[in-house]
Amino acid sequence: MNKIVFITGATSGFGAACAQQFAEAGGYDIIINGRRQERLLRIQKDIEEKFPVNVLPLAFDVSKRQDVMNAIHTLPDAWKNISVLVNNAGLALGRDLFEEANLDEWETMIDTNVKGLLYVTKAVLPFMIAKKKGHIINLGSVAAKEVYERGNVYCASKFSVEAISRSMRIDLLRHRIKVTAIHPGAAETEFSLVRFNGDAAKAKAIYDGFKPLTAKDVAEVIYYCTTVPEHVCINDLVLTPLQQADAIYFHKE
Ligand code: NDP
Ligand code: 8X3
Questions:
Q1: CA angle 62-113-217, nearest 5°?
Q2: Which of 99, 218, 206, 90 is nearest to 155 (CA)?
C-alpha cells in the first residue's frame, strides 16, 4: 500500500515539482492543494498518466480556517493516513519600505504563510498522532534567517515559520513526528510574478546575473529529507544558488 503525502500550494513552483518528485520516486499517493482547481486537475491528469500513483486534488484556500477544516476532516478514510505533510503554500506580496507597504498585502502574507500553515497542520496532526508517526516539512526561506530591506512582513512571516517549526519539533517529539524546516534562497518560480503583481519584467530582473535554484532543485531536497532512516530527522536545511550566500549577499555577473 502506498504512503500518502499531502502537499499544499501544489499548483505551481516547489509544490508542483514536489508532486512530480514523489510520484516519480514511487511509493506515495499524493494529495495536491491550491486555490486553482483547473491547475490541480491538470496536474492530477499529468501525473496519473505518467506514474502508477493516485492523486487527489483538494482545492481550498489555506487561510480560510473553516474551509481547511472541512476539506481535511471530510477526506475519504483511505486518504487520511497521511505520512508526510509539506506545508508549502505561501507568497510574498510587494517589496516596499515599511511606511509605504500595503496593509492588505501584509495581512494576506500573515494569513497565508503563518495562519494557513497552522490551520493545515492542526487539521492533519490527529491522523499522525493516532499512528505515532509522521513527517511535517515546512517551507521557510532564507528570509526566515535574515531580514532584508523592504522584506519586512514577508520576512516576519518566514521568521514565524522558523519559530513554529522549532516549537512543533519540541512538542511533537513525544508523538514520534519529524519536523523539518527547509529554507531556500532565490528560486525562479511564479513567486516573483506574484510578489510584483504580475509584472513579468520586474519578476525576471530578480534573477539577473546569477543562476537561481529551480523548483526541481528544491523538490529533490525536500524529497531527500523523507528518505533518511526512521531514527534520523533533518531539522533545518538552508539551500541557496551557488552565487547566493544568504538573504542579502549575492555574487552577480
Ligand atoms: P509559487 O508562486 O510558484 O507557488 C506558490 C503556491 O502556493 C501556488 O501553488 C499557490 O497556489 C499556493 N498558494 C498561495 N496562496 C495560497 C492559499 N491561500 N491557499 C492555498 N494555496 C496557496 O511560489 P514558490 O513555489 O516559489 O513558493 C512556495 C513556497 O516557498 C512559499 O511558501 C514561498 O514563500 C517559499 N519560498 C520561495 C522561494 C523562492 O525564491 N521562490 C524561496 C524561499 C521560500 P494557488 O495560487 O493556486 O492557490
Ligand atoms: C523567497 C526568497 O529572497 O525573496 O523567500 O526572500 S527571498
A1: 100
A2: 90
Atom of ligand 2 nearest to the CA of 185: 2
117 CB within 6 A, ligand 1: no
Cβ proximity of 145 and 238 under 8 Å: yes
Cα Rg, the chain, nearest whole Å: 17
Per residue in 61-118, pLDDT tens? 999 999 999 999 999 999 999 999 999 999 999 999 999 999 999 999 999 999 999 9
Which residue is catalytic, options 148, 154, 207, 223? 154
In order of their start, the domains of the chain are: 3-239 (3.40.50.720)
Alpha carbon 15 to its chain centroid, in Å, reads 6
Active site (annotated) includes residue 119 = no
The predicted model scores a pTM of 0.99
Q: Name the residue of 146, 154, 195 whose CB sits within 8 Å of the most ligand 2 atoms, as the mutation to test its pocket.
A: 154
CA 60 / ligand 1 centre spacing (Å): 14
Helix (H, G, I), strand (E, B) or coil at 125: helix
